[in-house]
Design goal:
Layout lengths: L11 E4 L4 H12 L8 E5 L3 E8 L4 E7 L2 E6 L3 E6 L4 E7 L4 E4 L7 E7 L5 E8 L21
Antiparallel strand pairs: 1-7, 2-3, 3-10, 4-9, 5-8, 5-10, 6-7, 6-9
């Protein structure tokens, strides 16, 4: 059985004004969408992009935009906070090996960030599928590993 984030209840969910720096960053992303859904692009071919997110305690990956169908797996487990494009702030606890699948129809997307609220490194693997309802967004120069840049 595949699960999505719709199946995962937030431990904390609120809709309140975000801190000024978060709001400014979100506004910047809305004008210049960020397709980098991980800290590092590990691999890419004609069908997939494979990303890793590694966050030290208190570290945060900024706003990024999901437009492709994908799945993520929590490698380490941990506790995180997300600011989501609908204005909510949510907190979740992730278990090692927990995996969620997300799909987006044409024109649909999700924008969010992720902050590690725990006291140890939090690691996720994300695999995007390029053959989705939306076309892959172009990646900025320098994001692709040397072997994938060709």
């Amino acid at each position: 059985m595949t699960l999505s984030m719709v199946d995962k209840p937030a431990e904390k969910k609120e809709k309140s004004q975000w801190p000024a720096d978060i709001a400014v960053e979100f506004e910047r992303e809305s004008k210049n969408p960020n397709p980098c859904v991980g800290s590092t692009l590990l691999s890419e071919n004609e069908r997939t992009r494979v990303w890793i997110i590694r966050l030290a305690p208190g570290e945060r990956i900024g706003f990024h935009r999901h437009v492709l169908d994908y799945f993520w797996t929590s490698v380490s487990g941990g506790r995180g906070r997300q600011h989501v494009h609908d204005g909510t702030t949510v907190e979740y606890t992730y278990q090692p090996g927990e995996t969620r699948h997300e799909t987006y129809g044409k024109g649909e997307f999700k924008v969010h960030d992720l902050e590690n609220l725990g006291d140890r490194e939090m690691v996720f693997m994300t695999v995007e599928f390029k053959d989705s309802a939306n076309k892959p967004m172009p990646l900025p120069a320098g994001v692709r590993p040397q072997s994938a840049a060709a």
